[in-house]
Amino acid sequence: xxxxxxxxxxxxxxxxxxxxxxxxxxxxxxxxxxxxxxxxxxxxxxxxxxxxxxxxxxxxxxxxxxxxxxxxxxxxxxxxxxxxxxxx
Length: 88
Description:
The chain is of the alpha+beta class.
């Protein structure tokens, strides 16, 4: 999956700091929040080493990971179809 595809899927770029130098981020990754408690995250660019970008559910005990943009797009469509706007 490319960075362009991640942006097309609605992900936003976030920067991480390991050294504590605020003006020079050490790495970056992408996130997308569907609703409070349901977010997706990518691997960081510092973890690439010839690998592709992937998307996984954020903060799960066992990683649930996807490598194809078309699969992630289909997943997002299914999730968005199930969102209940007016819940009682």
